[in-house]
Amino acid sequence: MDYLDGSLYHFRDNVTGLEVDGILEFSGGDYAAIEIKLGFNKVEEAKKNLLKFHNSMNKKTKFVYIIVGIYDIIAKDSETGIYIVPLTSLRP
Fold this sequence. Notes:
Layout: E1 7-12, E2 19-25, E3 31-37, H1 43-56, E4 63-68, E5 75-76, E6 83-86
């Protein structure tokens, strides 16, 4: 995020227990939400959590995505618009 002139945060609502692994805040005020899961078997759970977060915010996320440990491709879920990104695609 330093390269993009932004910041990385963690989100947790102590009242509802809603938690998001990462919030990427960009210099213009836009932000994105990410969940990190080791296995693809947790993607559905991550999607539900990200949608719950997105829908509860007054200012909506620019995009949301899930980083998974093992996955063959970068995909966009057609139903939710959530990106599913393999960890290996984030390397320089």
